[in-house]
Amino acid sequence: MTTTRVASSRVQKDSNGDIGEHLRNHIHLTNSIHLKNHMHNKHGPVSTDRSLLMRDLVLLQRSRSLRDPSANRNSPSSNGVVHKEGTRRRRRRRSVDHNVVKKSGLRLSSSSPVLNFGTSKVTPSDERCDGLSENSFGNEVYSVASVKSKDRANNIKTLSDQLNEVLGDDSDDVVPSNVPARGNGPRRRKFRGARRAGRAVTVRDNVVGIKSEMSLAEKYEEEEGTQREQDMTRAVPRNGCGLPFNWSRIHHRGRTFLDIAGRSLSCGMSDSKGRKGLTDISISSASSSSFTKPDRKALPLLVDSGDNEGWQHDYSGELGVFADDLLKNGEKSSSRNPRRHHQSFTQKYAPRTFQDVVGQSLVVQALSNAVAKRRVGLLYVFHGSNGSGKTSCARVFARALNCHSPEHSKPCGVCSSCVSYDNGKNKNIREMGPVRSFDFENLISQKDRRHHHKVFIFEDCDAMSTACWNALSKVVDRAPSRVVFILVCSSLDALPHIVVSRCQRFFFPKLKDADIIGSLQRIASKEEIDIDKDALKLVASRSDGSLRDAEMTLEQLSLLGTRISVPLVQELVGLISDEKLVDLLDLALSADTVNTVKNLRMIMETGVEPLALMSQLATVITDILAGSYDFAKDQHKRKFFRRHPLCKEDMEKLRQALKTLSESEKQLRVSNDKITWLTAALLQLAPDQRYLLPPGSSANASFNPSPSPCKDAAGEVRGRSGEGFSSVNRPSVEDIWLAVVENVRVNGLREFLYREGKIFSISIGSAPTVQLMFNSPVTRITAENFRDHILGAFEAVLGAPVTLEIRIESKKDQKNLGGRSEIIELEDESESAVTREANKNKNQSIVRGKVSLAQVIKQGEGSSWSKRKALLIAEKLEHENLRLESRSRILICWKALGSVRRKLWRLKMRTRRVRLHSLWKLVSSGKCLPLRSSIL
Ligand SMILES: Nc1ncnc2c1ncn2[C@@H]1O[C@H](COP(=O)(O)OP(=O)(O)OP(=O)(O)O)[C@@H](O)[C@H]1O
Ligand SMILES: [Zn+2]
């Protein structure tokens, strides 16, 4: 009762105006394309079709969550309502057989709308219930309570009944019953299974013993009782509306970095399993009687396709008003136009023959040969990517096995077997979801009086229960010769080896873009959709190898009713154009921080998903690297991409940018603040910020000033940012130290170094030398103990083997350097001529930090010091400085005459006297480098 009250109040709340929000939250629950458009019709490119909106609303209303349960609970039609609930659930996965339901003995109100999509199935409804309730399917209580009514239980046929009926009748008539496969009580299992649980099967066995029937029936009763108890004590729905949380989850499952954008194409229907409910209606409808019973095909997930009268008052609140209208209109229009329901492309263009199957030539060849040569196995497993044709192939194979055509091209589509399948009446082919239990034993004693293959297609078999697997593995060796099991799943991982090892395994890889494009083109021409080839390519590339995704997207695009171009596709699916992407990339790579951030913000304001944007950026970089991007437009506006073709170094930068993006993607995925991470990632693409890359990207974070000038086609030497190698690009000692500390993998050590250590000096070159200073013997020894870690961090940051000296800071050091550090950049004599030439253009001779000599000279230049005074001070300070830098092979501080400079470069300062003497001479004849002052 509590449950009912809460649910009622929720329903009331919904009817009091929260519907809009409610619908928005569950926009994907309905035939998402339409409803989404309806909900956003102000902005949508398609004008709203009121009747469609009405239908969607009614569909939603008809979900149990929006119905006032108390209104139905005790009503005479409650069983019918309950049945509809159950039916609806099943229908989310797959169609339900009207005939099956009729004959199953379920007490339905005469007006109960029941779908009939032809192919008979048994739905493991308890399994569904378990799955649903475990997933907080709030309305479970009502349906279970009613479903478990004695009347119904008494009238429901057991699985053995089904077996008897199916196996006892060799005609291709309608399968007469539908019994839920039973579960063993509630069990948490993945949603995939729950969704597929709607699949049904009817099996037969004309030799099933009464005893076994009884046991099954008893078991059913017993389980039902348990289930009822559990369900009655179960809490009210936690999602506040009764619609399952995992419906939301469906649409985000398994998304990858690069497919997020594309997946959004289908407005929440991208997940193949999520869409299965829609697509799967085609199992019998597209290929069967649905063509002749148009009212019952192509219904969205929540719709009943039967007569309307049974559900006229099966809703409440606002939706009731809409629904009444809809029903009135619907009835009128249905009487006028029997084909009022849309048939989706996936239904319409589902493969009927092996020739129709796209891109799975090996599988097709093997299966058709198996049929032709009558070498049919018992167990098959079709595994692989979603939307790649596994289920379609299973169906075609099943039809071919039973096809009576003497020709080799089976299935023929015209023989009685093919026709009965198309009409949904071929009981030799059964499809079922991930059942909990299946009485395989009954098959063992089956006598095959006719030359029919009994084909059982198990969808989502990876969600089948252990008991079911056990049962299956037991019958594997004893099964009748004409029984075929086809297990369909996306991965073999969850399947027991004992079964898999006895299966013929067929892998269905993702479909190639070319195959998808070909199929889309065929559909587009048949449907007279005017679409650019490039737009088709974009659709295909965003479908992640799933033809179903691509077909869904094409269908969505076809609703626009105009010529479909790439920008239109991009706009529709929330992608940004390539030009904008390249503009953003250009700004980021040119280190234009302000405009990068501004531009990114503007893009974000259009509602683009950060992950999708990152994916697009990665794609466009890949295209540029592959040379397939056309830079035709707006080239002059750009900085980084102004020159074309890009030089080698620029290409390398792009490669690094790709790496940075892919590394940032991981953070982006788990972060709540995706935009910030995206911004950070973009700013890291800039050359002058490469030093600030996070640890882990040591290759990017290298401070080694390896020759960077970039020779373009004209032979001109360019610097990293195309403007010459500037001192701005050089990191400070603090930057280096921070990067090194960040790179240390031991947490405690990191803090220790940060607190106690500092760089005394770094000589950067091909063989960098670092002097690390600590202020006490204890800390020095501690650091020594971790020398390897520290050295590793330095080498990762500097990108070269490092000589590390760990020392104690003396008072003299403090006095002389004022506690600050320096970088001395060395010329490597082994550098190539080209590099040396390039280095001439750089301000290579630098003594950084609080370098006394340079500072004094600077001071002297800008002040009224006499040259002599400056030199005197310089001499004194340089004296100390040079002593400290005894490792330096060359110290260049002065811009002297050419000959003197060359001498200076080669100067080896081996002894203090030599150094002082030589330097003094050079100092006297030189002058300060102007650039140096900017560094200090
Ligand atoms: N290889 C294919 N050839 C032709 N059509 C295909 C192919 N793959 C997918 N399709 C289209 O996609 C629809 C769904 O395909 P199907 O259900 O066979 O995929 P699946 O691999 O079983 O997917 P899932 O694993 O998600 O169940 C089909 O109705 C058809 O329109
Ligand atoms: Zn045939």
Name the hetero compounds present. adenosine-5'-triphosphate, zinc ion
Strand fraction equals 5-15%
Helix amount, in percent? 40-55%
Order of strands across the widest beta sheet? 2-3-4-1-5
Count of runs of 4 or more consecutive helical residues: 43
Keywords:
disordered N terminus, 6% strand, elongated, disordered C terminus, five-stranded parallel β-sheet, ATP binding, alpha/beta, 43 helices, four-stranded mixed β-sheet, DNA clamp loader activity, binds zinc ion, binds adenosine-5'-triphosphate, Helicase, Ruva Protein, domain 3, metal-binding, 936 residues, Rossmann fold, 6 domains
Structure commentary:
Residues 567-629 form the DNA polymerase III gamma subunit domain. Residues 647-674 form a coiled coil. Residues 1-10, 71-80 have a biased composition (Polar residues). GO terms for molecular function: ATP binding; DNA binding; DNA clamp loader activity; DNA-directed DNA polymerase activity; metal ion binding. Residues 11-21 have a biased composition (Basic and acidic residues). The protein is of the alpha/beta class and 936 residues long. It has six domains: 2-98 and 115-247 and 300-336, no CATH class; 346-507, P-loop containing nucleotide triphosphate hydrolases (Rossmann fold), CATH 3.40.50; 513-571, Helicase, Ruva Protein, domain 3 (Orthogonal Bundle); 574-685, Zinc Finger, Delta Prime, domain 3; 727-840, GMP Synthetase, Chain A, domain 3 (2-Layer Sandwich); 852-935, no CATH class. Helix content is 49%, strand content 6%. The protein contains 43 helices and 13 strands. The strands form four sheets. It has a five-stranded parallel β-sheet with strand order 2-3-4-1-5, with helices on one face. A hairpin with a 4-residue loop joins strand 8 and strand 9 (769-774). Helix 28 (578-589) packs antiparallel against helix 29, helix 31 runs antiparallel to helix 32 (674-683) and helix 33 crosses helix 36. Mean pLDDT is 60; it is low at 1-51, 56-336, 688-728, 825-853, 880-897, 907-916 and 922-936. The protein binds adenosine-5'-triphosphate and zinc ion. Zinc ion is lined by residues 403-405, 411-412, 415, 417-418. Adenosine-5'-triphosphate binds next to helix 15, helix 19 and helix 26.
